Amino acid sequence: RKEVEQDPGPFNVPEGATVAFNCTYSNSASQSFFWYRQDCRKEPKLLMSVYSSGNEDGRFTAQLNRASQYISLLIRDSKLSDSATYLCVVNGGGGANNLFFGTGTRLTVIP
Amino acid sequence: GAVVSQHPSRVICKSGTSVKIECRSLDFQATTMFWYRQFPKKSLMLMATSNEGSKATYEQGVEKDKFLINHASLTLSTLTVTSAHPEDSSFYICSARAETGGTDTQYFGPGTRLTVL
Predict the structure, then answer these.
(1) pLDDT above 80 (res A94)
(2) In 3D, which of B109, B111, B77, B110 has the Cα closest to residue B91?
(3) Which residues on A lie below 8 Å from B49 (Cβ)?
(4) Alpha-carbon distance B49 to B69, whole Å?
(5) pLDDT at residue number B1
(6) Does A43 contact B93 at a Cβ distance shorter than 8 Å?
(7) Residue A22 neighbours by CB distance under 10 Å
């Protein structure tokens, strides 16, 4: 079983739409969770960390459900510039530094 | 935010040659750096963890004699792909671990695209 699983998409949504991505992780000892954004042929860039209480950054909201080992990302009022691949990332757990990446969910925002 | 650079950004080489990739943390010290590889339409896969002043820790299935890692200073780690073959063609990305405000974050370099002919 993969450490991190995501729906690869693609998600094609119109501008202004709200879109949600989900992710599950297998290691119950994981402590840190992140969403990264990766543009085509570029390196991943940290979008936001995910906290137990949930957190919001502008149009982006992240949620964590430890009991279900489930992470979500909600994007409101989608912009064309949001088109990218969104990577769910989980640390190795047990104090490990290693990050495990999901395969990513591809989003295309259509004019 | 923290900045990590990689050099070169792109390299094309003949089969059998060795290629060295540098990863630098520009505005912070990183005792730990990580090397990843990403094949087209696949997720990043951790190859090894590079620790300043000590030997790298390799992930299962990654040959340490083929992918030589040196972390000689707190701001520089190098990955050398020895005797490269076409199947080594990939996008190699490094990251550096930074501790900011009590939280560990990894910052990624821009990646190196390796093509072995």
Answers:
(1) no
(2) B111
(3) 97-98
(4) 9
(5) 62
(6) yes
(7) 15
